[in-house]
Amino acid sequence: MRKSLIVMGTLLLALLGGWYHYQHHHFNPNTYINQVDVSDLTTESALKKLEKVKINNQLYVDNQLIYQGKKLNTGVTPSDSGYLKQLLKKQASFFPNHKIKKFYVPAMQKNFERNQKLEQCLTAYLKSENHKRIRPVNAYATYTDGQVKIIKEKKGDAYDIAKMLQTLKRRENQGTIKVKSQYLQPTTSKSKAVQKQAQFLKTLLAQKATYKVQGKTYDIKAKDVITSASYQTGKLSLDTNNLTGKIMQINHSQATFGKEYLFKTSHGTKIRVKNSTYGWKLAPAKATHRILTALIKHRRASLDAQKDLYGTGFYSTGTGYKHLSNHGLGTTYAEVSLTKQHAWFYKAGHLVASVSVVTGNVAEHSETPKGVYYVGYKQAPTTLRGRHTNGTPYASPVKYWAPFTVDGCGFHDASWRHDWSPKAYLTNGSNGCVNIHPEQMSTIYHALEPGEPVVIY
C-alpha cells in the first residue's frame, strides 16, 4: 500500500512538473503578438510564425474602415527572441489563462512611409467629416446692458483631430489600427479661464483715464465709452463707438485742420480763410487705441493728445497744436495778399518784414494757391527744377528757398526777374511761387520757421 502511494506521488509530481514546464515554455491560450495568434506556441515556434506571417494593413475610426493597404510583415525578426522570452515569462501561469492577451513587439525600424500615409489619411477623413459636424462653442464673458455676464458653453460633435492623431502615433506599429472617436470639448462656464475673463471685464469697466488736449482735460470713464464687450478664447472685443464719437466731438470743438474762420489782415479788414494743409486734428483710430490700451492695462493714466495728432502736407502729425491764439495761427506767421501783391512776416507778434512780391501767373493758370499752408523746411542755396506750363523744363538757382506746398510753391529770391510791378502776376507771374526781391529775402528767410503758417488770400 505504502509503495503504491509512493509511486502515485512520484507520478503526480512528474505530471505537475511536466505541466509546469509546459506552461512556462508555451504561451497561454488567446495570446496575440503583433495581432498574430501564438496560443500554445513556444517562443521558437512563435518567432518563426511571426517572421513568416503577413498581417492586415488597415485603419479604422471606430468601426469605419478608412484605409486598406497591402499586407505587412509583423516587423518581428530573430533579434526579438529575447523580447519574446520576456513576454512568455510575463504571461506564464500554472493554470491555463484563457483571457485575451495582446502584446506588441516594437519594430526596430519604423515604416515612415506607411506612418505618413496613415496620418494623411486620418487627417483628411476627420477634416472632411468635421465639415458636416458642429464645433463646440466655448463659454465666454460678455458685457451688455450695463452687466457682465457669462454665456454658457455649447457642446458639439466635431472630432478632436490632434488627440486622434496622437492615438494613431501610439499604435503605428500595429497592422490593424483602431482609433476611437474623440471630440472637441468646449471651455466651460465654471473654468478658471472664463471666470478670470469675467473679472477682467468688471475691472476694466471700473477704469478711467484723463485725456489732455491742449489746455483742456477730459475724464474718460471706461463704462461711458465702452457700450458692449466680449472676452472669448483669449480675444477681447470692444464696441468703442462712443469713444470714437468722443474723439470726434473734441475735434469739432478744438481741432484746426480744415477749419474756416475770420482772419484780420494786415490792412485791417476781416476775411474768411480756410486751413488747407495747416492745422491738426486727432486721428480717431490712434487716439482710441491709446486710450483703450491705458484702460485695458488698468492704468489710471494721464494721456497727452499730442501723440495722436494727424495732419497733411509735409508733416503727417499736424501743425500748430501748441498755438491757442489767433484761431490756432499764433503770433508767428506769414501773410500774402494776391490782389495787393504784398507779403507781411510776423514773428512773436512783431512785424519783421513788409515787402512787395510777385505771385503765380494768372494768364497761364499758375496762380499761387489760396488758403492757409505752412513752411515745410528751409534750404539755402538750392536750384529749383520743374516745368513751365508749356512743358519746357527750367532750373533756377536761388540763394534762399522755403516751400509751403508739397508740390513746389514757396518763398524764394528771384534774381532773374525784372518786372516787379503790382500787375506783373497777371501775365508775367511765377510758376506758383512767391517771388521776393533778392536784397529782402535774407531777412525773411532767417525769420521764417518750419511749421510756420502761411495765410494766402
SSE order and pairing:
Elements: H1 2-23, E1 31-33, E2 36-37, H2 43-52, E3 54-61, E4 64-73, H3 81-91, E5 101-103, H4 112-130, E6 140-144, E7 147-151, H5 161-170, E8 176-179, H6 192-205, E9 208-213, E10 216-221, H7 222-225, E11 228-232, E12 235-239, H8 241-254, E13 260-264, E14 270-274, E15 281-282, H9 284-296, E16 302-304, E17 309-310, E18 333-337, E19 342-347, E20 350-358, E21 371-374, E22 382-387, E23 393-398, E24 401-403, E25 410-413, H10 424-428, E26 434-436, H11 438-447, E27 453-456
Parallel strand pairs: 1-5, 3-8, 9-16, 18-27, 25-26
Antiparallel strand pairs: 1-2, 3-4, 6-7, 6-11, 9-10, 11-12, 13-14, 15-17, 18-19, 19-20, 20-26, 21-27, 22-23, 24-25
Helix pairs in contact: 2-3, 4-5, 8-9
Based on the model shown, name its key terms:
alpha+beta, single chain, 457 residues, eight-stranded mixed β-sheet, 11 helices, four-stranded antiparallel β-sheet, elongated, 4 domains
Description of the structure:
By secondary structure, this protein is α+β, with helices and mostly antiparallel strands. Helices cover 29% and strands 28% of the residues. The protein folds into four domains: 2-52 and 76-107, no CATH class; 117-192, no CATH class; 206-254 and 284-308, no CATH class; 331-456, Beta Barrel (L,D-transpeptidase catalytic domain-like). The strands form eight sheets. It has an eight-stranded mixed beta sheet, covered by helices on one side. A four-stranded antiparallel beta sheet has the order 7-6-11-12, with helices on one face. Strand 3 (54-61) and strand 4 form a beta hairpin. Helix 4 (112-130) packs antiparallel against helix 5 (161-170) and helix 8 packs across helix 9 (284-296). The longest helix has 22 residues, at 2-23. It is elongated and about 155 Å long. The relative contact order is 0.08.
